[in-house]
Amino acid sequence: MDRLTINRYIQNYIKQVEQSIQEPIVYRELGTMPLDEAKAFFLLLPFLNGEEWSPVLNISAIAVGAVHAAFDIHDRVDLLDASTKEQQLMVLSGDHFSGIHYRLLSSIPDFEFITAMSKMIGRINETKTDLFMGSFDETYAHIEAVNCIESGCIGEFQQRYGFSKYRTISETALSLIWYFNQLIKDTTIHRSMTTNRLKKEKIETAISILSGRMRKELLNADFLTPFLKQEIHRLANPLSGKPL
Amino acid sequence: MSLYADFRQDLSFIEKELEQSVDSSSPVIRQASLHLLRAGGKRIRPIFVILSSKFGEYSMENVAKVAVSLELIHMASLVHDDVIDNSDFRRGFETVKSRWNNRIAMYTGDYIFSRALVSIGEIEMPAVHQLLAETMLEICKGEIIQLEYQQITDQSFRDYLRRIKRKTALLLSSSCELGALVSNANADTVGKLKRFGYFAGMAFQIVDDILDITSTDEKLGKPAGSDLLNGHITLPTLYIKDDPEFQPFLIRSFDGTLTEEERIRMLGYIRQSGAIEKAQAVSTLYLKKAISEVESLPDGDAKNALLQIAAFIGRRKF
């Protein structure tokens, strides 16, 4: 599989999520929700690696995408004043996306995954709150919190459908991407997750820890094709540009 | 509420389950959720689930899961509504967004939603989940549509009814339907209870809209007339929105320039206009429909309680 094909699958998946969550008024007022391509890549990773991918899995994957869209839009709600129509719609559209996720999982129906995902969504909100309140001062604890927020739902998906071997690698890569985004001052993401600006040294320490983990995990990931290993390395190290 | 007396044991079990459901590992979320639970509320959704389930094979375990889930969904939507309306008080208590901020309110609301699904997730009945999912989406759609109608005076009676259906009646209707479904009540009974919940819910919201004008700031825990101040036309104001004497109040409410003195005069104007009586008549009509659905159900404590609740909705003052 080459990069063009991978991109096509990712864009196709994103389109399916967009179609599932679309609501005419929200679409008219806020436009299309930007969906995270890196998260889409790791969600589809087992499929891209040749694992069997049934229609049920596809519905579940779209449900996970709807949850990510809900998280993203709710993170954009203003801290102090959400009384403009645009902001009000952000609150409601997040709730709508969340409802779509539940409807999709109910249509399968996968009760086990409904429960697992709901528990994880709860945990992610707890972690976001604690992070926002300035907890997780210690770097390892901070990394764990970012792991949970960035890859918790994808991890649950992988666990549920027998792809748990992909979980650690997805977790490490998505956390690395998050810290790199902080480093290049992606203030949108930054503001959404913490009140206090993360110190640069802390970000660099976290990147160093996670980069070490990533190298080991990629070396041991015999189940992945060499090309996918390269792609993961590229995605998780946006500043290095060096091949694996 | 004394009409809950026969079901106090079931309700106190549900109350404990509610507290356990939101016993978060995050200190702020735990505090915010308990703050909400302790602010009270009528618990009308749980009581509808309990009473409806009495018409089938009653299992407290299943009933509690549904009741907790519905009450949590209601609670979560209130937390997010307060962000949308920028409200500092609800039922006389500080809102989560006011005590903390919008971000914490969003996380708390999302957390409570997730716990609602954890609670009901243990019930392996596809129809239950499909109904709840559709209900949640319809409620949300209703709120989105409500935004479209904000500060719009050109609204019909039908628009108003459609709005309150999604805002309140649907969740009450689903509370009854889900209670009956999880206790395997027969299809005819499920249908009657579903319609009872819908009609009672419509009446409940109309009464709520009337109380927003006729009650006091103290009893409401927020300024009387808040609906208008937030740009929402409700049934009483729908009747008089075109009165030339009322128009200046309406315009100033919507553009946020209404003074405190004008608010008091506006409330007085609506109260003596005859609009309240007209709205009450519509509410009574819905209550009659609700009662007629329940009348043909088997006699018993649950039926009596539903009839009492319908009567209470009509005369409630809070």
Automatic annotation (TrEMBL), chain A:
<dbReference type="InterPro" id="IPR009920">
    <property type="entry name" value="HEPPP_synth_su1"/>
</dbReference>
<protein>
    <submittedName>
        <fullName>Heptaprenyl diphosphate synthase component 1</fullName>
    </submittedName>
</protein>
<dbReference type="Pfam" id="PF07307">
    <property type="entry name" value="HEPPP_synt_1"/>
</dbReference>
